[in-house]
Design goal:
The chain is α/β, with parallel strands linked by helices and 482 residues long. α9 runs parallel beside α10 and α15 packs across α16. The protein folds into three domains: 71 residues, dopa decarboxylase, N-terminal domain, CATH 1.20.1340.10; 249 residues, Aspartate Aminotransferase, domain 2; 119 residues, Alpha-Beta Complex (Aspartate Aminotransferase, domain 1), CATH 3.90.1150. It has 16 helices and eleven strands. The relative contact order is 0.14. The strands form two sheets. A seven-stranded mixed β-sheet has the order 1-7-6-5-4-2-3, with helices on both faces. The protein has a four-stranded antiparallel β-sheet with strand order 8-9-11-10. The protein starts with a helix and ends with a helix. The structure holds pyridoxal-5'-phosphate (PLP).
């Protein structure tokens, strides 16, 4: 591709993106593609000769697009809906063009310093104290893994140097999560060789919040058994229900036992930008690490997770390694941050650029406006559910996600209700205008309506509500017929 062609296709693709973003509803939100259908349309071997951009572009539009589930669709209300806001998309384009690797300060001073600045801005927006230092990672899964590694480093058990295997002197290291904690924290424990069995799941109460008294009992029992508790994860906005763990009470326990407290606010943490929601981060300033994902509920294109630590030196001690070929004068003078020291990867994308574009384009007021709107729409939907005799809510709605199920009068059997709700969700999803996902709460098949897309409006949640009611109505008619 010569640069003239680059210019031509660049213009064409930007036009295409602007059209796409102005009408994502033209496409079914959940791709109707069957497994293997996309692969079947692609050659199994790479091209021997160069292909034209015209041919590649055509295949993108004809083949790839049909296998896309449209996260930009305002009817996308599954999992945690998100948004690639236009300023973030432009920043991604620039980051790809610059193609800088932010491993060291000198490999692009602006990448490092912009990361410092934007993460400090985000910290201020969230109302956290200035004791925190941030680092951008690809995902909350990685952020939490780094937090566990830092916590293990803080035990001073020399795991960094001696490892964990074949050591008689090492007690079982125990970490504590709740039965609602995202699986990524458990995966972090597995990856770090701590063992899945050593991730203890603390039961939650009827509001799906970790029970601090059971946390303390578990810690105490482990100490009595000769184990070594070292890490607790509390969540602000759990994945299934968006419940908020009682961080102040948990922080009190972790302080008493000298344990590392990690707060997972991957989705929910963003809501603290609203003054009326700031209470969700109560106690977080006492934690050791905190994660929030701008790529979830902060308009930033995937991927962008931010990990904050209050003692960055510990995270650095866990990971920093300086071969001669990466040394520099400013590193020796300790004058700069080299972000390669704060995680696993050496090469790092310039992710701060898109976060900077987004934070500047929306400003505090713009971010507050869209977060507030999402929470209000969730409250509206929750009210519709509460007022309907055909449906019931299965969890509180503190943020922008509603957990509910169809429960028509006279249908008591839990298995029937589970099957009904699965059918209802599938029917709605097949229609292509709304995409919902599910979870199971205390054995009950639970539908989740998660509002997180910038373009979702009341009309979209009304459409979801109408389709849900219709699906339940159809089920009743079919049941009578049978
Ligand atoms: C509370 C919570 N933590 C962590 C994650 C994992 O996020 P990521 O996909 O960035 O690894 C999720 C994903 O939904 C989540 O809800």
């Amino acid at each position: 591709m010569n640069l003239e062609q680059f210019r031509q296709y660049g213009h064409e693709m930007i036009d295409w993106i602007a059209d796409y973003l102005s009408h994502p509803e033209r496409y079914p939100v959940l791709s109707p593609t069957q497994p293997g259908e996309i692969k079947g349309q692609l050659p199994s071997a790479p091209p021997e000769q160069p292909e034209t951009m015209a041919a590649i572009w055509q295949d993108f539009q004809q083949i790839i697009l049909s296998g896309i589930t449209h996260w930009n669709h305002p009817g996308f209300m599954a999992y945690f809906a998100n948004t690639a806001a236009p300023p973030g998309i432009l920043a991604e384009l620039l980051a790809a063009a610059l193609n800088v690797n932010g491993m060291l300060w000198r490999t692009s001073p602006a990448a490092t310093e912009l990361e410092e600045v934007t993460l400090d801005w985000l910290r201020q927006l969230l109302g956290l104290s200035d004791e925190w230092q941030g680092v951008i990672t690809d995902s909350a899964s990685m952020s939490s893994l780094l937090a566990i590694a830092a916590a293990r480093e803080a035990t001073n058990l020399a795991v960094r140097t001696l490892g964990m295997s074949g050591r008689d002197d090492l007690p079982r290291l125990r970490l504590y999560i709740s039965d609602q904690t995202h699986s990524s924290v458990e995966k972090g424990a597995i990856t770090l060789g701590l063992g899945q069995e050593n991730a203890i799941k603390i039961p939650t109460d009827e509001q799906f919040q970790m029970r601090p008294e059971l946390l303390e009992a578990a810690i105490q029992a482990d100490i009595n058994a000769g184990h070594r508790p070292f890490f607790v994860c509390a969540t602000v906005g759990t994945t299934s229900t968006t419940s908020i763990d009682p961080v102040p009470a948990v922080a009190e326990i972790t302080a008493r036992y000298g344990l590392w407290l990690h707060v997972d606010g991957a989705y929910g943490g963003a809501a603290a930008i609203l003054p009326e929601m700031r209470h969700i981060l109560a106690g977080t300033d006492k934690a050791d690490s905190f994660v929030v994902n701008p790529h979830k509920w902060l308009l930033t294109p995937l991927d962008c997770s931010t990990l904050y630590v209050r003692r960055p030196d510990i995270l650095k001690n866990a990971f920093s390694i300086l071969p001669e070929y990466l040394r520099s004068a400013e590193t020796d003078a300790q004058a700069v941050i080299n972000y390669m020291d704060y995680g696993v990867q050496l090469g790092r994308r310039f992710r701060a650029l898109k976060l900077w574009f987004v934070l500047r384009s929306y400003g505090q007021s713009g971010l507050q406006q869209f977060l507030r709107h999402h929470i209000e729409m969730a409250q509206t939907f929750a009210r519709w559910v509460d007022e309907s005799p055909q449906f019931e809510r299965l969890a509180p709605t503190p943020l922008s996600t509603v957990c509910f199920r169809a429960s028509p009068p006279g249908v008591e059997n839990e298995e029937t209700l589970n099957a009904l709700n699965e059918m209802v969700m599938n029917r709605v999803n097949e229609r292509g205008q709304v995409f919902l996902s599910h979870t199971k709460l205390r054995g009950r098949y639970t539908l989740r309506l998660a509002i997180g897309n910038l373009f979702t409006q009341e009309s979209h949640i009304a459409e979801a509500w109408a389709q849900l009611q219709e699906a339940v109505g159809d089920w009743k008619i079919e049941r009578l017929r049978d």
